[in-house]
Backbone:
């Protein structure tokens, strides 16, 4: 006879998830660290991390009645994106975009499939007043802590969820439900949660390679220095002291993953939704900088890159160009765009021109 656990695993695999796990809603052991991190100001301008903090630390407050969280993992690294990642990062004329953002917006992909999975479970239980709600990086949810408790991996020194078999190139999403599933096996497709221990050991690769030294210690990230924060969450000017350290990274940063030993044996994804679009895994900084706003909107439609606006896009690319070679074509493009640029973009164009030896 097929158990509920086996059915859920089968349904999850059908939806494209490589692993799921269950956990209760007790996150009390994480609360002191979260409060301390916020008190140090490391969240920068991400005020949403402080809002609804009680709900973030207690799933039952976010979705009343929740007693079980189903945490699900989906690999996202496309084969071509895996092959050219380090080569792109090493080429100062290319634009490096974080691998997670090259294809379709993961929020849409995972949330839709989690909702279907939740509905299947709900239908199977068939009891009155059961309910579920799916989340993918879209609400006050302590995702990595829940993933760890559900047995998907451990939280590494780079603050990411690490899995012994596949490293960290995966998305996670959650289903909050009032169905008591936590007494099922702790993780479908992996070891029991109690066996998922910290395996970073003495390694400090992520801390060492971080371009802006945002990792101030193991599992201690000052987001205000993180390139992902600077290029995405930050809406204003980028700190001039940090600009030279950003290199050609124009949307996010993957260094703490690229150089993590647990990602040496990369497991690529067969999910076509995550296949790079518009050659974004291998485009020049100059070609992207020359996009019009209409082109930006058209070519990033349905992409996680839409988390930023056109001004932020140009700001980031201007920094990348300023960190590259003094190509006359680049200088001409910066000068041409300056006249019509916003004050934010113009500041970064001027910085780039000064770096490249070009007059305004």
Residues:
């Amino acid at each position: 006879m097929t158990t509920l656990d086996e059915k859920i695993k089968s349904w999850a695999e059908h939806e494209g998830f490589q692993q799921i796990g269950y956990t209760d809603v007790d996150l009390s052991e994480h609360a002191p660290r979260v409060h301390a991190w916020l008190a140090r100001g490391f969240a920068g301008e991400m005020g949403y991390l402080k809002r609804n903090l009680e709900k973030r630390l207690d799933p039952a407050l976010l979705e009343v009645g929740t007693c079980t969280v189903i945490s699900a993992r989906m690999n996202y690294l496309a084969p071509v994106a895996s092959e050219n990642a380090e080569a792109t990062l090493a080429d100062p004329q290319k634009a490096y975009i974080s691998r997670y953002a090259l294809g379709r917006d993961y929020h849409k992909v995972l949330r839709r499939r989690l909702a279907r999975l939740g509905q299947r479970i709900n239908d199977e239980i068939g009891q009155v007043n059961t309910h579920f709600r799916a989340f993918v990086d879209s609400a006050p949810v302590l995702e990595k802590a829940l993933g760890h408790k559900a047995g998907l991996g451990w939280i590494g020194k780079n603050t990411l969820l690490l899995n012994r078999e596949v490293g960290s190139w995966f998305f996670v999403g959650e289903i909050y439900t009032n169905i008591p599933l936590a007494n099922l096996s702790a993780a479908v497709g992996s070891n029991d949660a109690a066996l998922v221990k910290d395996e970073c050991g003495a390694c400090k690769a992520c801390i060492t390679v971080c371009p802006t030294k945002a990792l101030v210690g193991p599992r201690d990230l000052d987001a205000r220095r993180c390139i992902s924060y600077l290029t995405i969450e930050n809406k204003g000017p980028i700190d001039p002291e940090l600009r030279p350290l950003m290199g050609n990274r124009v949307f996010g940063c993957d260094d703490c993953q690229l150089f993590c030993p647990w990602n040496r044996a990369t497991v690529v994804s067969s999910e076509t939704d995550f296949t790079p679009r518009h050659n974004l895994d291998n485009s020049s900084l100059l070609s992207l900088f020359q996009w019009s706003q209409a082109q930006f909107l058209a070519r990033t439609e349905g992409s996680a890159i839409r988390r930023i606006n056109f001004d932020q896009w140009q700001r980031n690319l201007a920094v990348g160009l300023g960190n590259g070679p003094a190509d006359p074509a680049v200088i001409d493009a910066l000068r041409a765009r300056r006249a019509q640029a916003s004050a934010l973009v113009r500041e970064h164009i001027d910085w780039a021109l000064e770096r490249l030896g070009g007059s305004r």
